[in-house]
Amino acid sequence: MSNASSQRLARLLALVPYLLARPGILVEEAARDFGVTPKQLRKDLELLWMCGLPGYGPGDLIDLSFDDETVTVSFDAGMDRPLRLTATEATSLLVALRALADTPGVTDTEAVSRAVAKIEDAVGQAQPSGVVIGLGGRPGVAETVQRTVTRAVDEGRALRIRYYTASRDAITTRVVDPKRVLLMDGHSYLDAWCRQAEATRLFRLDRVDEAVLLDEPARTPEEAEPVDVAGGAFRATPDQETAVLELTQDARWVSEYYPTDERTELPDGRLRVRLRYSDRSWVVRLVLGLGGRARVVEPLPLGAEIAERAERALRLADELADAR
Amino acid sequence: MVSSARAERLVNLVLCLLSSRQYLTADRIRGIVPGYATAPSSEAFFRMFERDKAELRDLGIPVETGRNSVFDNTEGYRITRPDYELGEIDLEADEAAAVGLAVRLWESPEFSQAAHGALLKLRAAGVELDLSVGAAVEPKVRIAEPAFDALRAAVENGQVVTFRHRRSSEPEPDARLRTVEPWGVVSWRGRWYLVGHDRDRGATRCFRLSRIVGAVRAVGEPGAVHRPSDADLLRIVAGSADPAPAPEPAVLWIAADRAHGLRRHATTVGGREVGGTPGDVVEIEFRSLSSAADWIAGYAPTCW
């Protein structure tokens, strides 16, 4: 049985009680709530009209009345309540709610706790789940930055931020139109329209050195594309470059922290990976910092640049030592 | 292609089983529910009926099997209302907002779909839930670990698991076989861990899922694992991280307008020219001198 058809069956079973609770609802609104097109919803309603109780006479079938763009259930054939939640549905909701309840500063934890109790009561699942989520992020966000950013999102106001871009090792000041703050992978990000880049960007809050609330409303242009965070904050794009590195055991952590693929195990516990990066200076700093624990296999000019910088650093060290 | 005839038959089957207090035999059902009239033979009917029952059960519909009396020689089927129906629920506006935020938390297809399934049913129970209500902070949780599903299933079934796990610096071929009584799967600072009793070491341990090599195998009887009632899984994971060492001061030279990543954590205390390059002397505190050395070396030759 395909996923699409079991999703449809779930929707059909939920539709009658849903409509029963909302007499005269707009078909369009119901479609939106069920995440389908109004056309699909009408098809579903036509199908339900053919269903009913044994006997299947006029008085046994589900009866719906349409009026302009609205719909009302006049006979529910005994389907007046939704199906109970499956174990996975209850888990997905309760694990998420318990995480919210345990994390101050995200939302009203007292309201979350009440919601947890009511849902546990309705679904009859009170035992602790096997999945637990800690939403607390890593430390490092300045409290004043956190406060100012939250206020800008709440009040829908523009912000001026001084921001450290790690890939380019540069600090810039820019005006952004905040949309929301995302808490993801242990970091807080400001999701905002950046007027300088003229694009939607994620700004890691621990890299915001200063945030000033502006006296103008946030205005995200129509063409702004929402960020897709399904793959995490780092998104692979066609303009990124790649380098092949050989990592010794002590440097294997690189493959866990940064986007790598084509992993190959080599003798002596070494690992070869292809690393994706958006700024060359970033990969230069990474490999220099790894000292002898990483070797650039390709591109060759990258390896040469790093070697040249390391040599200059050694000469400089001699001069510093002489000066002491 | 999604067959409307099949969907219609399944809805009718649910309504029929819900409306009957008696167990209905397959043959009775064949005679009652209109969709089965098309089955050309008994064999074809039973195949259809088996698939239909499986689909209903997959959706979580409690199709009960039983006999109405000891004299019945064939089993029948029914759905009892208290087992089928979601309990009464009514949420205040702030509670509904929290549920909306919880539904949007998942960035993994399986859980996201399940949460939306739950949302659908809550709405069908009359609860008003608006997903477009903004929140100041939106948490997002991803599950990109191949080991996740098997471990979660083992936790739910209370089954011991074995898997190969490597330490951070260990190459995959060196991963060691572990036998663990799993208590739970925990997300901590964006990473997933298995928490449980490590049978080889006889102690509570955390295993990062991304360092599990190959497949997780459930071994032994379901129900064999008992998680201690006082185990706080999140605290176990948080406590397994090394405590942050005390900060140590350092003085660096940084070339003018370079190494901004370091400068934003440092205080400039003077200027100095080195080898003809102007720069600043800065004071900075490091938590770990060895990782600080790597960090500084990354800025070579503009920082020393």
Question: How would you portray this structure in words?
Answer:
The complex is a heterodimer of chains A (324) and B (304). Chain A is α+β, with helices and mostly antiparallel strands. Chain A has four domains: 3-75, Arc Repressor Mutant, subunit A, CATH 1.10.10; 87-136, no CATH class; 143-217, SH3 type barrels (Roll); 241-321, 2-Layer Sandwich (Alpha-Beta Plaits). Helix content of chain A is 37%, strand content 28%. In chain A, the strands form three sheets. In chain A, strands 8-7-6-5-9 form a five-stranded antiparallel beta sheet, with helices on one face. A four-stranded antiparallel beta sheet of chain A has the order 11-12-10-13. Chain A has a three-stranded antiparallel beta sheet with strand order 1-3-2. In chain A, helix 2 (27-34) crosses helix 3 (38-49), helix 4 packs antiparallel against helix 5 and helix 8 (280-289) crosses helix 9. The mean pLDDT of chain A is 89. Chain B has 304 residues and is α+β, with helices and mostly antiparallel strands. Chain B has four domains: 4-84, Winged helix-like DNA-binding domain superfamily/Winged helix DNA-binding domain (Arc Repressor Mutant, subunit A); 87-142, no CATH class; 148-240, Roll (SH3 type barrels), CATH 2.30.30; 248-298, no CATH class. Chain B has helices spanning 4-19, 26-32, 42-58, 81-84, 93-105, 109-124, 148-157, 233-240, 260-263, 289-298; strands at 24-25, 64-66, 76-78, 137-140, 160-165, 176-188, 191-198, 203-208, 212-219, 248-255, 267-274, 277-286. In chain B, the strands form three sheets. In chain B, strands 8-7-6-5-9 form a five-stranded antiparallel beta sheet. In chain B, strands 1-3-2 form a three-stranded antiparallel beta sheet. Chain B has a three-stranded antiparallel beta sheet with strand order 10-12-11, with no helix packed on it. In chain B, strand 11 and strand 12 form a beta hairpin. In chain B, helix 5 packs antiparallel against helix 6 (109-124). The N and C termini of chain B lie far apart (67 Å). The mean pLDDT of chain B is 90. At the A-B interface, helix 1, helix 3, helix 4, helix 5 and strand 4 of A face helix 1, helix 3, helix 4, helix 5 and helix 6 of B. Strand 4 of chain A pairs parallel with strand 6 (176-188) of chain B.
